[in-house]
Amino acid sequence: MISWKTLRTICLVLLLLPIAHLVYLVSRDTVATLNSSPDAWAAEIAAYARQDSVSKLPAEPIVVVGGRRVKLWSGLEELLAPHPVLMRGLGEATVDDLIYHYERLIGFYQPDTIVLLPGNSEFHIRANKDAQALVEGIQALVSLDDSLANSRRFLVITPLKTPLYPSDVPVIEEVLERLQSWAADHEKVTILDANSLLTKADGMPNPAYFRADGINLNEHGYVRLSVLLQTAIENDPLRQ
């Protein structure tokens, strides 16, 4: 018969296992973020490849790419049905990482539409870009797609203003202005200004739409982001 002390120890270990697993995942992602090489995400790319090998992949899907914000974005597949959707987020990947892994992460699926959701890593630790550098990276990703998969449509969601990094606000506003000016001459590219739905009247990020970390969206924030994307998909002028 198991003693009460032993049983209590077992219960404690079982309770701590999820916490230990979370600490491991956070530590692993932190190490990868600090590694400037795009190969930092090789394990996640391999995991997608294994998943694809045992799945029936849809034809001409909507492929959503980016970093952690894409991985945390749930329920989009159901919202956009019957359009097939593949969520392909990589840790805290930057646009440069997506370019490096383009063939396996995007081009492999021969997407009808690509949706890009940049992360805060573009401006901090991993990349430290200014507005011009980020816009040039996005332009390079679109050009690469034009030369390889030639997707029908490319939707770029603006970088998000966040409560944790108010200093990013002017940079993000410059990114939006530059992207809109560039996209005016590119029929397949649409810029979606998510910040108009996630900020207060003064233009600063509204904490009500973000998690406690001040970076990632909460359920309410993702609802707004999802509706923005759904509207763009359903009102696609290239399908008229």
Number of E strands: 5
Write down the CATH topology of the largest domain: Rossmann fold
- Structural class of the helices, strands and pairings? alpha/beta
Strand arrangement, major sheet: 2-1-3-4-5
Q: What would CATH call the class of the largest domain? A: Alpha Beta
The portion of residues assigned to helices is 40-55%
Mean pLDDT, to the nearest integer, reads 90
CATH architecture of the largest domain: 3-Layer(aba) Sandwich
The total tally of domains equals 2
Overall geometric form: globular
Order of helices and strands: HHEHHEHHEHEHEHH
| Unreliable residue runs | 19-28
**Please, what is the CATH homologous superfamily of the largest domain?**
SGNH hydrolase
The total count of helices amounts to 10
Strand count, sense and barrel status of the largest sheet are:
5 strands, parallel
Give the strand content. Answer: 5-15%
End-to-end separation in angstroms reads 72 Å
The Rg value, from CA coordinates, equals 20 Å
Please specify the SSE layout and strand pairing:
Blueprint: H1 4-34, H2 42-53, E1 62-66, H3 68-71, H4 76-80, E2 85-89, H5 95-100, H6 102-105, E3 113-117, H7 131-147, E4 153-157, H8 169-183, E5 189-192, H9 195-198, H10 219-234
Parallel strand pairs: 1-2, 1-3, 3-4, 4-5
Helix pairs in contact: 7-8
